[in-house]
Amino acid sequence: MTIEERFKAMRSAGAEVPRPLEVLGTLDGKSAAAHLDARAAAFAEGALPAKYKLLAALAAAVALDSTPCIMNNIQGAMKSGASKAEIMETIAVAKFAKSATVVSTAAPALEWLVGQA
What domains does the chain contain, in order, with CATH numbers? Predict the structure, then answer.
């Protein structure tokens, strides 16, 4: 199946094809297909319910500042039964995790600053 056919099937199933993935598919269909294959593997039935996987993906998307992924994961999480409260809590955890990395990254500069007169 070509990447165009996969995108058409996604749309027929009610899924949105993110614009960056569509552009990638235009330039390199094999890379776009590999991305879709990796997503299918990550979200396949397993130890974690789909809702939890989508909330984890949402947290990563928030921390990485990916608006299209944030939107896709929020919509997917809601379709999988996540409540608005669960989504907001996930965003709060992601916000904290990202801010913690900022403090850690700045630690050497902060230590240097403490030593200044």
Answer: 1-42 (no CATH), 48-117 (1.20.1290.10)
pLDDT in tens, the chain (117 residues): 999 999 999 999 888 898 999 999 999 999 999 999 999 999 999 999 999 999 999 999 999 999 989 999 999 999 999 999 999 999 999 999 999 999 999 999 999 999 997
- Using the 8-state DSSP alphabet, how is residue 80 labeled? T
- The rounded distance, in Å, linking the Cα atoms of 86 and 15 is 22
Q: What is the DSSP letter of 6?
A: H
Tokens for 87, please give them: 């989504």
Q: Check: pTM over 0.70? Answer yes or no.
A: yes
Residues 6+ apart with CB under 8 A from 43: 50, 53, 54
